[in-house]
Amino acid sequence: RMFSAYPSTKTYFPHFDLHHGSEQVRAHGKKVVNALGVAVKSIDNLSQALSELSNLHAYNLRVDPVNFKLLSQCFQVVLAVHLGSDYTAEVHAAFDKFLSAVASVLAEKYR
Amino acid sequence: RLLIVYPWTQRFFDSFGNLSSPTAIVGNPKVRAHGKKVLTSFGEAVKNLENLKATYSKLSELHCEKLHVDPENFRLLGNILIIVLAAHFTKDFTPACQATWQKLVGVVAHALAHKY
C-alpha cells in the first residue's frame, strides 16, 4: 500500500520485486509487523527493545526518517479499513503516538 | 479528529470554547461548523482540479497573512481525512483509492501553501 501511495518509498527496494502480490514484499511486511509487535510488548522501553533495529536503520539502511511517517499513515489506513468505526479518535491518537515513538527510536542513532 | 490526534493544532482555535477532551471537541458546535466549512472548500478543490492554485489563491493568502497557519497543518489534516475515509469505506478504500486521495490532499495542501 505504501509503494502505491508513496512511490518514492520504492527507491529503498531496488532489489525487490514490487509487483502486486510479491512474496518478497509480503515477507518483508511480515517482518515489519512482527517488529511492531515486539515494540508493543515493550512499550515502556522502546529504546532498548528496538536497539538492534535502531542500529540497522542508522548504519545500514539509512532510511530517511520522513518515510517512517509515510509508513505510519499506511498502517493506520489499514487499521481503519479493518476496524471501521472502532478506529475511534482515541484509538487513532494512541496509534499515531505509538508509531511516532517507534519512528523516533529507529532514527535516534542517525547522528 | 485533527484536534484530538494532534492536540497542538488547537492553538488556532482559542475562540472555539471547550476543547478540553475528545468528548468536548466532538460535541463542540463551533468545531462542527468549522469542519463543514473546511470540507465544503475541499469539495471546491475536487471540482477545480485543473485549476487549484487559482481556486485557492485567496484562501492561501488568508491562511498565511491572517491566520498564520504553518502549512504542515494542511498535511496533517489531509492525512486525518484519509483515515476517516478509510474507517468509513473500509474494504472499498483500496490501495489505489488511498493513493489517489493521498495525491489529492497533497496538491490541495500545496495549493494552500502557494501564496506563503
Gist of the model:
Chain A has 111 residues and is mainly α.
Q: Which descriptors apply to this entry?
A:
heterodimer, A: mainly alpha, Globin-like, 6 helices, B: 116 residues, 7 helices
Task: Walk me through the structure.
The complex is a heterodimer of chains A (111) and B (116). Chain A is mostly helical. Chain A has one domain (18-107): Globins (Globin-like, Orthogonal Bundle). Helices cover 68% and strands 0% of the residues of chain A. The longest helix of chain A is centred in the N-terminal third of the chain and has 19 residues, at 23-41. Chain A is globular and about 40 Å long. Chain B has 116 residues and is mostly helical. Helix content of chain B is 69%, strand content 0%. Chain B has helices at residues 2-5, 22-27, 29-47, 52-55, 57-66, 72-89, 95-113. At the A-B interface, helix 5 and helix 6 of A face helix 6 and helix 7 of B.
Walk me through the topology.
The complex is a heterodimer of chains A (111) and B (116).
Chain A: H1 2-5, H2 23-41, H3 46-49, H4 51-61, H5 66-83, H6 89-107
Helix pairs in contact in A: 5-6
Chain B: H1 2-5, H2 22-27, H3 29-47, H4 52-55, H5 57-66, H6 72-89, H7 95-113
Helix pairs in contact in B: 6-7
